[in-house]
Structure formats: structure tokens, C-alpha cells
């Protein structure tokens, strides 16, 4: 389903909700890349390091470390959705917030913002085309990630088409959790697919991500037949998916496939933890212990021993 | 690194800089001798030089292979009273200041008091220079609009080409004879001057040959007493080398290095030239000797490396001559900017990288010392492997080598009128300055404070720091009805101060040509011998004078803020903004937040701001480029700061971009510290919008976290980032690979970080030796992290 941000408004070209565009992304595919972050994800992983990517709507984010505690945002809000505690810290009553953006405009320190910006295809293309010279030099390109780019398939597809017309290579970074038809149509158009594999046991997958992995595994098998290069992304969360059984199941599964070029082991880090708080959503996520390098190495070695190309990071 | 080099390196690192009075004494005594007093000025200078070479102390340290030094001991630094006669209080400051100090002993103070000061006061070039400047010049200088390079040090700023590798001094003396024979005393009104100059050059050549023969004798006498057979053989070899060079062209690798080093000692003894002389394209020059040695079996790769490392140490033994006052502020470092070039193109346009290029990079990595500084020239024709090898050194985090674009250098030099071959044999020296090595005098004349000129424009010609009117009345802020009117007023103000600077420069150029010719240096830079003209008098084939623009990032952000907040969005009136600046934003904190956070900034690939950088660039270029200099050269621009961005910041009040009064302005062409928020590709895109080819060098600093470069893939991507910048015709880029956290720790516990080397401007320095403001500034430069 495509998100309709401002219902009733018709558009000449697709548009959607993007929560970030990062340049000089060097861990999301080959070469120097620009990463387009689509907002909205059907999964809800407990360790998510981009928790602001999950909701398909814009949302208020507070950054207390940037806040001058001046109260400008509180005064700017017409809906009494913001207040200051005694020490000046700004707190939000999200039920009152209409996402009008007055607070963001009033703040001079970018300490309060609405995550997610409605961008047209043209906006996005203009922004990512700026770095074309780097893609050409390095064999890089654009990576569509999120959230889940397949959650806004019209925009994602139009973007892939446009970038290809411009001669820019595209990688699709996906959880694979999308209707097979949509998924395969977009995957066929992508130059590289970065595909997440988290937990193989269905019950565990459900527990930690909120959804079953049957569709994901089925899509991966179908994807493999397309012959597009695949890099498997394995977010490595100690205590969740580092069990021997899980590692073995992943290796067994991948060794059956022909198009998997590599498995990227992405060690858990606490980069997202601060954001849980900024979104007032601490209770929805868990904090894990980042794995030691020795542990990471043992996982890498296991995959290598099984005959996979394994690499730390992307 | 073998034991010998380890020891030489340690001795160099441990030696403490001190002022040596030896040179001042010999020079002053020489000037009192009747035969010198009576001679023409060039001959006088040559005789003084010869006296120095005959009389200065010589020594050979145990284990040394390359011999000769400027002072009587490592880091014993001479003074040049005929250029700048230090006062007793100058000497006391040098002795006691916390950073870049030089020990001064009682004997030196006494000698200065009794002999040096009475003789040179009023006669030194500095005294003549300051007396000759106009009141407008003095006002602008004191306000910190510009600095003056030549008030304490002589022009210098040139690099040796390939001449010495095919010609000994006896050959050059023959060339002098031929030039003398060609003089036309009937038709050339300058023939007499040329004769004096040529004779002076010949005497100076004798001076260096005498110096070398003294070393040959010393080596022989040490060999005679030496117990160790190995060292005895080495000393005998040293004697043999010094018997041959510099009188004759070198026959092998060792002689080539020793010849260069004797010339280096000669140049740095003749004067305290800016941007210490250097051998330039070392891999090109030495390669034939290296190849021949390997082919004949007289040299091994390890042997060549040891000699190179012995050569490297010598540079480190010679800190910059002591600087005081504004000169110390603009260049607060012991580094003296000898910049070894590796890679680049051959004169025929083919790939110039060779085996020695990689060997030299090994040496740079192993030695890890401040001097000499090093750089890699990257042409599209050079292999990626050369750049990757260099980046592996960059990754270790001592700021060397810096990376330059050969294509940009060649185009810059050709735009200035050099032949394509001369351009390809050129490179960069000092920090980032492009030059035709061996053929050009490309002299930096002073830094120019662009943000300060805009500050004065906003105050209708008055410097708000002093309340003194030093500029033009171009209209009060209320008169600026549009941004264009403001820019136009700025352009007038800029012209006013550039004119003042150039008028001063022209007087100074004449003073040096008249009173302080450099016959020794002139021996080596073509076409001084051919023309019978001194290096200081337009003798070089190409003569260029630079005025180095500073604070491009800051002035761009100032203008972007004025355009955006005052004229386009009308968020604040100019009056109110000026009041806020006057209060250093006290009571205007919210406004300052807006200026910092919600205003377009240079370095983010945002045309709104970047276009203004281009406009400032074009104005500055248009007012300087192509203007004639007194001795037949041309004025050009470049954009680099050394440490002057800290000083220029100190004299500049709060600025419309949200910068507080006294904070450093931006350095080189880098974005304002911390304001480049969209990562390195955006910085490079912004910088690529400038027309580097119209400059003689631009300096871009980038800071990366070590993590981003930890693996080979990270290095590959950095390589591609640099290659992309060079496709956009960027001139130069350099990196600090160190975390802000480490730097903060080092600031708190300097004793634990004595060896932490960071990139400052076009050179590296020990972090703990940098002034506090400079340390803060380096920490604030945005650190690009893994995304």
C-alpha cells in the first residue's frame, strides 16, 4: 500500500514519506552511496536502531541534548501538546499533537522536529543526483532503505526507474516482508538486493519482529531464482540470534541458494537507544548488550567454515 | 628502521630549539671588514656568505651519513640581524613563551646588547621596511586586515628543480663566466649591475665548495682516529662524497642527496627564507641514481632507504627561524614547510610514479617526524596503488602526506603563463602553493583577512574593535537597500585594502632587490645566472607574488546570513543584527541559534551559500590577479592560512554567521568549523564549485574518525572521494584521522600525548605545541563518521 499523507491531494508524480537522505554512505552496498530512508516498516524489531523509521506517519522527536530550554516551542504550539518541566525540559503530550510543525519552525536549535518529510520523486532525485560524480568514480549508487522501501512501493519503483534512466545503480535494502508480486517486481529492477535475515525459527521471529518469517523466506527463495546479486544482512543480536541452531539454519538455508554473494554480519549497537527516548517509546524496545569482537569473529568464522563469504559490516 | 637511524631520529627529537648567536656574530664582523664595506651590495652579500661558510662551526654526529647543518648543533637556530634585528625583549619572549620557544643563553643576550643591536638597529631590512610604510598601511596592518611576510623573513619560497643533478658548482661557475662574457657594456644599461651580481654568484659558489671541503677534511680526520672499521669506512666515504659534490655533478645516490643537503644548508644560511627550500620532486630526481646503483650493484633498496632516512633527519634538525609578533601569530610552528613531492607527471606528460615513490612513502611512514613535510601528487595517470599506499599512512593519523591534484597544478601554472614542461616539473611547496620548481620565484607576501573587510564594510569604514576609521565610507548599514548594494560596498572596501597591501608590497619588493640580494640562492633558480639577475630582482624565469586570502568559509557564511536573514526572509533588520554583533550576541542568543542552525552554510552543496563563495572568490581574484609587480612579476591569489585564521579571528568581532568575537575564522577553503553537516561528499561538491585553476593553491582540511578508515574498503572509498574531488579540479586535500575525544584528552593531559601529531594547515604539528585557540579550532572541525 502506498501511503497517502495528505489525503485527497492528487500528485503528478509519486511522493512519499522519507525520513533521511544520507550522503557518503559507505556501509550499504558497493562504492560511495547515498541512502534514501523510507519511513514506515511492517516489522517491529526489538533492537531497531532506527525506531523513527517504523511508523508510517510523521512523528514528533525531541532532542534534549540540543535544547536550550527556552520554551519557544511550547509557546508556538496551539494545541498545548508541549510543556516544560520545572527544570525546563520539554515534554510532549503526543495525543494532542496534530503534527502541524509550528514547534519545529519555532525552534532555532533543531531540538524538536517532525521526523519524516514528504518528498516528491523529483525532490529525491535532485538530492541524490548531486553525488553522481562519486557513484561514477567508485562504482557506487543509491540504496533504498528504511523503514521498508517496499512499504511505499509506488515511490520506490518510480525512483528505481528514474535513477536507472539517469544511469545510476540502485540497491534495495529490504526485510523481504512484502507481497511476492510487488517484491519481485522491484527486486528485478534493482542492481543489488540487501536482504535481511534475522531469526530462522518462526516463533522467535514473531516474538522479536512482530511478524512470521514464512513470507520472508519464501520471497528470498523466489528472489534467488532471478539471479540478481544478493547480500544477506544479518543483524547480530546476542541472546536473540547467536545460538548455534540459528546460525546453522541460516547457513543451511543460504547454501541452497545461488545468488547470495555474501553475508554481512551487522553487530548490534546501542545507536538507537537514545532515539527510543526521543520518541517517548522506550517501552516498545529492548536494550541488548553489544557483542564482543571475539563473539563476532566466532560467528564470522562459523559462516566462513560453512563456505559462505562472511564480512563484518556492510 | 635500523639502529643507526633510530638513534639519529631520537637525537633529533630530543634536541631542544635554541637561538644560536654564531651567525649574527660572523655576519656583523664581516660587515665591519673594509673590503666588504667597500664592495657593491651583491658582492658584499656574497662575501658575507663566504665568510659564514668558512667560519661557522661544523660537526659530524656519530652515525651520520649526510652531513652539514645550518647551526652549530641540532636545532641551534641562527638569527639574521640584517633582515630582522631582534630586540632584547624579543629574545626574552622567545626564551620564555609557552609555545614554540627557543632557549636564549646569557652570552647571546650580552652579544646582542653589546654588538648586534647597536650595529643593526635602523639598518636591518625590517627597520627600513617599517619606516617606509604609509600610515594607511600601518593602520590596516595593526587592525589585522593583512599580515606582512617580509618583515622578519626574506622572500624565499622556491623549490629546487633538476639542475644540481646534472651540474656541479664548477659547471655553474662556467655558466656564470659565459654570462659575464656576453655582457654588453655598450648597449645594456644594466650590464654593470649584472656584472656585480654574476661575480657575487661566483663568490657564493666558492663559499659552498669551501664548506664542503671543510667537511671532507673533518671526515678524514675523524676516520683516522676511528676504531670501528665499519664507521671508519663510512667516514672515508663521506670524505670522498664531500670532495666531489657540490663542485661536480653527483655520480651516485649518496652524492645526490649530499649535494642537495649542502645547497639546503647554503640557502638557509644565506637567509631565513620563508618556506624552507626543498628538493621538490625527489622521486623523479633521484630515480636515475637509484636505478644505476641497483643495476651496478653499488646500491641496495635497504641502503637507499637508510640514506633517505639519514637525509630526512637533517630536515628535522632545522626548526623554522624564530618568529615574533604578528609573524609568530600567523605561523606559530617550528615546522619550516619543506614539502617533499612524490608522484605526479614527468615533463613529457607520462606517469611519474616509480619504485622510489613507494620507497619514499615507506620512509615517511617509518620516520613519522614533522620535517620534512610530504605530499603525494596524484595525476589521473598515476596508479590507484600510489594513492592507497599514501592513504595507509594518512590512516595512521599524523596528517602526512597531503594529497594534491597534478592536473590542477599543471593547469594553474599554465594559466599563469608557464610552458607545459615547466608546469609538469612543478608541484606544490610550503603548504599548498603551486610553483614551477627550479624556475620560479613564487613569493607569498601576506595573508588577507576577508571577513574583517566585510566587518569594516558593515561599519562604514570603522574598525569596531578600535573605533578607528581605517576604511572607506561606503555607506552606513541603513543605506544598503539590497544585498547587491552591500556586496558592491564590500567590493569597494576590498579594493581599498588590496591597493594598500600592494603598494606596500611594491616598496618591500624594491627594498629586497636593492639591499638584500641573494646571490647564493640565485645560483640554483633559472634563469638568474643566464640573465645576471638576482632572485630578489626578477632573475627567475617566472616571478609571482601571492596575497593569500583567508576566511573564505566565514565570509561566505556571513554573506549568506545577511542575504538570507536580512534581505530575503527579513527575519532581522541589519540594524538589529549589528546591535547583536556589538553585544557579541549577549541577549540575542535565540537569534544566534537561528544564524547558526537555520541559515544556509558553505560546504553543504547548497547553491545559496556556495554561489556567494564564488562571488567573493571572483571579487578577490579580479582585484589581484595579473597586476604587475616591481620586478616584472605578476600578482596572483591563493587561499591558505597556516595559523593566521586564529589571529585573524582574534581581531574580528562577532560576525553575522553566528561566530562569536575572537573565535578563529575558517581556515583555507574549508567550511566554517562544524558547519559542514552533510558529510564529505557535500563538502567536496561545494569546494568543487570554486575555480581552483585561477589560484596558485587552495587548502582543504578534512577530519575523519579512525573507524571510517579502519579497513581496506574504507580506504578504497576515501581514494574514490579524493579522485572525485580531483575530477572536479580541486587542488589539494588533507586529513586528520583522530577522534575529537582523543584531542580533548590530549588537551587535558598534554604530558601523555607528547607524540600526537595533527594536521594544522598545510603542515603537521605536535598537538601539544599548538596554541590553545588552535587546539580548540582543530577539535571543532567537523569529524566525518561512518554513517
Radius of gyration of chain B: 26 Å
| Shape summary of chain B | globular
Largest interface: A-B, 25 and 30 residues
- Measured by DSSP, the beta-strand proportion of chain B falls in 5-15%
Rg of chain A over CA atoms, rounded to whole Å, is 20 Å
CATH fold call of the largest domain in chain A: TIM Barrel
Strand order of the largest sheet of chain A: 7-1-2-8-9-10-11-12-13
Characterize the overall form of chain A: globular
Mean pLDDT of chain B: 95
* Biggest beta sheet attributes of chain B: 6 strands, mixed
Strand content of chain A: 15-25%
Low-pLDDT windows of residues of chain A:
1-11
Task: Give the helices and strands of chain A as they follow along the chain.
Answer: EEEHEEHEEHHEHEHEHHEHEHHE
What's the CATH architecture name of the largest domain in chain A?
A: Alpha-Beta Barrel
Q: Name the CATH homologous superfamily of the largest domain in chain A.
A: Aldolase class I
Short description:
The complex is a heterodimer of chains A (314) and B (787). Chain A has helices at residues 72-76, 102-106, 121-129, 132-138, 153-165, 180-189, 202-209, 214-226, 244-255, 273-278, 293-305, and strands spanning 15-25, 33-38, 59-62, 82-84, 90-92, 112-115, 117-120, 141-146, 170-174, 192-196, 230-236, 260-267, 310-312.
Structural features, described:
The complex is a heterodimer of chains A (314) and B (787). Chain A has 2 domains: 15-57 and 116-312, Alpha-Beta Barrel (TIM Barrel), CATH 3.20.20; 59-115, 2-Layer Sandwich (Alpha-Beta Plaits), CATH 3.30.70. In chain A, 32% of the residues lie in helices and 22% in strands. Chain A contains 11 helices and 13 strands. In chain A, strands 7-1-2-8-9-10-11-12-13 form a 9-stranded mixed beta sheet. Chain A is globular and about 60 Å long. Mean pLDDT of chain A is 93; it is low at 1-11. Chain B is an alpha/beta fold. Chain B has 3 domains: 1-80 and 162-274, no CATH class; 136-152 and 439-671, no CATH class; 278-314 and 329-421 and 700-787, no CATH class. Chain B contains 32 helices and 17 strands. In chain B, the strands form 6 sheets. Chain B has a 6-stranded mixed beta sheet. Chain B has a 3-stranded parallel beta sheet with strand order 8-11-12. In chain B, helix 1 (3-14) runs parallel beside helix 14 (301-316), helix 4 (41-55) runs parallel beside helix 10 (191-225) and helix 20 (450-458) crosses helix 21 (483-515). The two termini of chain B are 38 Å apart. In chain B, 61% of the residues are buried. The model of chain B has no long low-confidence stretch (mean pLDDT 95). Chains A and B meet through strand 1 and helix 4 of A and helix 26, helix 29 and helix 30 of B.
Amino acid at each position: 500500500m502506498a501511503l497517502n499523507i495528505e489525503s485527497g491531494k492528487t500528485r503528478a508524480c509519486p511522493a512519499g514519506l522519507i525520513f533521511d537522505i544520507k550522503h557518503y554512505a559507505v556501509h550499504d552496498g558497493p562504492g560511495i552511496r547515498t541512502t534514501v530512508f523510507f519511513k514506515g516498516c511492517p516489522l517491529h524489531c526489538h533492537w531497531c536502531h532506527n525506531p523513527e523509521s517504523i511508523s508510517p506517519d510523521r512523528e514528533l522527536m525531541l532532542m534534549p541534548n540540543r535544547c536550550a530550554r527556552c520554551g519557544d516551542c511550547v509557546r508556538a504550539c496551539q494545541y498545548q501538546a508541549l510543556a516544560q518541566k520545572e527544570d525546563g525540559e520539554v515534554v510532549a503530550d503526543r495525543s494532542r499533537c496534530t503534527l502541524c510543525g509550528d514547534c519545529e519552525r519555532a525552534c532555532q536549535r533543531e531540538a524538536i522536529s517532525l521526523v519524516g518529510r514528504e518528498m516528491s520523486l523529483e525532490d529525491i532525485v535532485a538530492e541524490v543526483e548531486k553525488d553522481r560524480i562519486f557513484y561514477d568514480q567508485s562504482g557506487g549508487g543509491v540504496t533504498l532503505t528504511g523503514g521498508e522501501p517496499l512499504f511505499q512501493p509506488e515511490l520506490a519503483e518510480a525512483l528505481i526507474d528514474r535513477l536507472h534512466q539517469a544511469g545510476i545503480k540502485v540497491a534495495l535494502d529490504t526485510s523481504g516482508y512484502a507481497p511476492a508480486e510487488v517484491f519481485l517486481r522491484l527486486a528485478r529492477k534493482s542492481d543489488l538486493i540487501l536482504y535481511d535475515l534475522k531469526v530462522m525459527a518462526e516463533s522467535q521471529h514473531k516474538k522479536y519482529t512482530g511478524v512470521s518469517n514464512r513470507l520472508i523466506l519464501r520471497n528470498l527463495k523466489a528472489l534467488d531464482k532471478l539471479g540478481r546479486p544478493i547480500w544477506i544482512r544479518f543483524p547480530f543480536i546476542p541472546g536473540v540470534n547467536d545460538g548455534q541452531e540459528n546460525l546453522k539454519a541460516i547457513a543451511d538455508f543460504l547454501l541452497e541458494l545461488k545468488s547470495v554473494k555474501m553475508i554481512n554480519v551487522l553487530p548490534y549497537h546501542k545507536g538507537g537507544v537514545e532515539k527510543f527516548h526521543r520518541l517517548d517509546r522506550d517501552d516498545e524496545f529492548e536494550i541488548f548488550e553489544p557483542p564482543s569482537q571475539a563473539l563476532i569473529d566466532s560467528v564470522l568464522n562459523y559462516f566462513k567454515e560453512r563456505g559462505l563469504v562472511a564480512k563484518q559490516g556492510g | 628502521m635500523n639502529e643507526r637511524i633510530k638513534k639519529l631520529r631520537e637525537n633529533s627529537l630530543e634536541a631542544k630549539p635554541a637561538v644560536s648567536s654564531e651567525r649574527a656574530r660572523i655576519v656583523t664582523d664581516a660587515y665591519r671588514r673594509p673590503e666588504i664595506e667597500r664592495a657593491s651590495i651583491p658582492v658584499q652579500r656574497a662575501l658575507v656568505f663566504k665568510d659564514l661558510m668558512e667560519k661557522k662551526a661544523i660537526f659530524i654526529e656519530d652515525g651520520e651519513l649526510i652531513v652539514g647543518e645550518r647551526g652549530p648543533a641540532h636545532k641551534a637556530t641562527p638569527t639574521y640581524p640584517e633582515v630582522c634585528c631582534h630586540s632584547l625583549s624579543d629574545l626574552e619572549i622567545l626564551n620564555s613563551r609557552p609555545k614554540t620557544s627557543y632557549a636564549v643563553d646569557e652570552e647571546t643576550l650580552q652579544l646582542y646588547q653589546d654588538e648586534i643591536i647597536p650595529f643593526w638597529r635602523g639598518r636591518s631590512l625590517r627597520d627600513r621596511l617599517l619606516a617606509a610604510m604609509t600610515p594607511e598601511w600601518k593602520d590596516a596592518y595593526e587592525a589585522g586586515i593583512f599580515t606582512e611576510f617580509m618583515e622578519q623573513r626574506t622572500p624565499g619560497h622556491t623549490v629546487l628543480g633538476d639542475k644540481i643533478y646534472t651540474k656541479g658548482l664548477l659547471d655553474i661557475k662556467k655558466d656564470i663566466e659565459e654570462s659575464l662574457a656576453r655582457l654588453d657594456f655598450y648597449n645594456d644599461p644594466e650590464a654593470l649591475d649584472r656584472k656585480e651580481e654574476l661575480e657575487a654568484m661566483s663568490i657564493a659558489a666558492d663559499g659552498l665548495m669551501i664548506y664542503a671541503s671543510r667537511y671532507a677534511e673533518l671526515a678524514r680526520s675523524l676516520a683516522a682516529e676511528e676504531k670501528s672499521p665499519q664507521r671508519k669506512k663510512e667516514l672515508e666515504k663521506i670524505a670522498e662524497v664531500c670532495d666531489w659534490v657540490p663542485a661536480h655533478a653527483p655520480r651516485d645516490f649518496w652524492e645526490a642527496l649530499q649535494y642537495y643537503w649542502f645547497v639546503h644548508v647554503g640557502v638557509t644560511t644565506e637567509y631565513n627564507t620563508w618556506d624552507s627550500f626543498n628538493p621538490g620532486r625527489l622521486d623523479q630526481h633521484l630515480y636515475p641514481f637509484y636505478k644505476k646503483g641497483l643495476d651496478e650493484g653499488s646500491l641496495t633498496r635497504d641502503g637507499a632507504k637508510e640514506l633517505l632516512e639519514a637525509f630526512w633527519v637533517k630536515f628535522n634538525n632545522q626548526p623554522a627561524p624564530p618568529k615574533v609578533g604578528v609573524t609568530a601569530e600567523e605561523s606559530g610552528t617550528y615546522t619550516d614547510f619543506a614539502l617533499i613531492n612524490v608522484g605526479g607527471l614527468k615533463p613529457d606528460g607520462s606517469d611519474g610514479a616509480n619504485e622510489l615513490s613507494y620507497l619514499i612513502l615507506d620512509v615517511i611512514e617509518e620516520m613519522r617526524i614533522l620535517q620534512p613535510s610530504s605530499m603525494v601528487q596524484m595525476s589521473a595517470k598515476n596508479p590507484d596503488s600510489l594513492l592507497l599506499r599514501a592513504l595507509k599512512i594518512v590512516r595512521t593519523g599524523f596528517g602526512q602526506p597531503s594529497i594534491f591534484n597534478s592536473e590542477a597544478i599543471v593547469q594553474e601554472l599554465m594559466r599563469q603563463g608557464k610552458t607545459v614542461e615547466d608546469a609538469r616539473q612543478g608541484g606544490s611547496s610550503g603548504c599548498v602553493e603551486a610553483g614551477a620548481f627550479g624556475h620560479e620565484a613564487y613569493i607569498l607576501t601576506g595573508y588577507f583577512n576577508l571577513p574583517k573587510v566585510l566587518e569594516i564594510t558593515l561599519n562604514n569604514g570603522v574598525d569596531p574593535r578600535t573605533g578607528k576609521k581605517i576604511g572607506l565610507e561606503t555607506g552606513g548599514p541603513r543605506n544598503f537597500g539590497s544585498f547587491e548594494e552591500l556586496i558592491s560596498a564590500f567590493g569597494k572596501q576590498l579594493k581599498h585594502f588590496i591597493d594598500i597591501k600592494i603598494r606596500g608590497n611594491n616598496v618591500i619588493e624594491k627594498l629586497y632587490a636593492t639591499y638584500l640580494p641573494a646571490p647564493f640562492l640565485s645560483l640554483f633558480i633559472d634563469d638568474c645566472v643566464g640573465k645576471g639577475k638576482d632572485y630578489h630582482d626578477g632573475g627567475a624565469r617566472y616571478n609571482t607574488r601571492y596575497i593569500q586570502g583567508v576566511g573564505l568559509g566565514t565570509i561566505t557564511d556571513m554573506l549568506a546570513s545577511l542575504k538570507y536573514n536580512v534581505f530575503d526572509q527579513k527575519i532581522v533588520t541589519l540594524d538589529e543584527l549589528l546591535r547583536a554583533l556589538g553585544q557579541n550576541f549577549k541577549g540575542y542568543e535565540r537569534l544566534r541559534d537561528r544564524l547558526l542552525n537555520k541559515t544556509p552554510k558553505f560546504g553543504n552543496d547548497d547553491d545559496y551559500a556556495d554561489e556567494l563563495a564564488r562571488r567573493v572568490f571572483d571579487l578577490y581574484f579580479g582585484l589581484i590577479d595579473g597586476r604587475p609587480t616591481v620586478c616584472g612579476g605578476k600578482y596572483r591569489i591563493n587561499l591558505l592560512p597556516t595559523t593566521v585564521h586564529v589571529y585573524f579571528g582574534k581581531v574580528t568581532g562577532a560576525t553575522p554567521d553566528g561566530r562569536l568575537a575572537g573565535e578563529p575564522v575558517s581556515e583555507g577553503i574549508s567550511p566554517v568549523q562544524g558547519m559542514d553537516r552533510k558529510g564529505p561528499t557535500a563538502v567536496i561538491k561545494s569546494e568543487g564549485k570554486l575555480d581552483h585553476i585561477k589560484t596558485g593553491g587552495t587548502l582543504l582540511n578534512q577530519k575523519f574518525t579512525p573507524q571510517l578508515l579502519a579497513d581496506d574498503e574504507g580506504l578504497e572509498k576515501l581514494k574514490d572521494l579524493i579522485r572525485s574531488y580531483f575530477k572536479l579540479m580541486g587542488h589539494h586535500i588533507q586529513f586528520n584521522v583522530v577522534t575529537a575525544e582523543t584531542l580533548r584528552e590530549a588537551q587535558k593531559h598534554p604530558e601523555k600525548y607528547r607524540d600526537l601529531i595533527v594536521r594544522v594547515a598545510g603542515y603537521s604539528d605536535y598537538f601539544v605545541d599548538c596554541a590553545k585557540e588552535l587546539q580548540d579550532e582543530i577539535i571543532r572541525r567537523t569529524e566525518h563518521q561512518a554513517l
